[in-house]
Amino acid sequence: MNFRRRIRTEPMGFQIIPIIDVILLLLIFFVSTWTYAQWETELNITVPTAKEVTKSRRMPGEIIINVNKDGEVVLNKKNLTDLELRSVLVRIAKQFPDQPVIVRGDEATQYKAIIRVLDACRQADIWNVAFATKPPEQPAPATTPAVR
């Protein structure tokens, strides 16, 4: 004897809630990584330490010019010659007259490589130039023995 009735299941419709969840998570992921990708930094560049550091507020759209220890200029992950750098800066200066530029030079870079970048900025009529440094390391607090 079969006491169970035949169970009829209704076909499931299109489930939209899980799709919305996945799309929302992807959106959050891409927005958060895009924020970090705005501020390009070359990882193999060690900027020098400065005793007096003024932490400035980062602005979206600022140009970061990296100069590695061999004197090569890197902008947007591309190695540029002096002429290419100047032409890029001229185009940017025409569109955005007060464009800020940050120069990140490796601490082992020769001074003449930094001057070449400054000359290119001056020829492009860019006057808002800053240099990236890192703050001095704070000494570890001295530990005192506990007295009982």
Give a written overview of the molecule:
The protein has 148 residues and is of the alpha/beta class. The protein has a domain at 42-131: Nucleotidyltransferase, domain 5, CATH 3.30.420.270. The chain is 33% helix and 13% strand. It has three helices and five strands. It has a five-stranded mixed beta sheet with strand order 3-2-1-4-5. The longest helix is centred in the first third of the chain and has 22 residues, at 17-38. The protein is elongated, with a radius of gyration of 27 Å.
> Describe the biggest sheet?
5 strands, mixed
Write down the secondary-structure element order.
Answer: HEEEHEHE
Taking all residues together, what is the mean pLDDT? 79
Which segments are poorly predicted (pLDDT under 50) over 5 or more consecutive residues? none
Number of strands: 5
How far apart the termini lie comes to 83 Å
Task: Describe the strand arrangement of the main beta sheet, using strand numbers.
Answer: 3-2-1-4-5
Q: Supply the helix-strand structural class.
A: alpha/beta
Helix % is 25-40%
CATH architecture of the domain at 42-131: 2-Layer Sandwich
CATH class of the domain at 42-131: Alpha Beta
Q: Give the DSSP E fraction (strand runs of 2 or more residues).
A: 5-15%
CATH topology of the domain at 42-131: Nucleotidyltransferase, domain 5
- Tally of separate helices: 3
- Measured on Cα atoms, how large is the radius of gyration? 27 Å
- Overall 3D shape: elongated
